[in-house]
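Journal club side-thread
Mid-discussion, someone asked how the predicted structure for our own chain would compare to the paper's figures. Pasting it here so we can look after the session.
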Amino acid sequence: MFYKPLLLPLMIQVLLTFVVWHRMYFDRISEMQDKRIDPQRINTREKGRALLTGSAASADNFSNQFEMPVLFYLAIVLALMLLIQDAVLVVLAWSYVVLRIVHSFIHTTYNHVMHRFWVYIGSCAVLMIMWVRLAWQVL
């Protein structure tokens, strides 16, 4: 079996998305049961947002998994397709994933905005460096 060092951080990022998804549904179902909310009352995103305030952080974090991480997935796939896989890119990929895990932890637990903000900025900076590195090697 041929091992690609960039595949593991990619798989961990995918796993994070599923963990956050699970957390969101656990939080939402618990909140619906506690507040005795009929599922039909939240048949639109707006209604859900208005009624399910206790699980909003988990839902917001789940949505976050389809924002900047999309550029991470694309960078990894591009690197694999172009056979660009050096130690720097692997460290950057792991750094990004670790920062995203920390961001999700903060967002879905104590949700301190400035802690979350600085981790988010750090992850975006790492992602930008990944793209600059890829562009440099491609061009």
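Post-session note: The longest helix spans residues 7-35.
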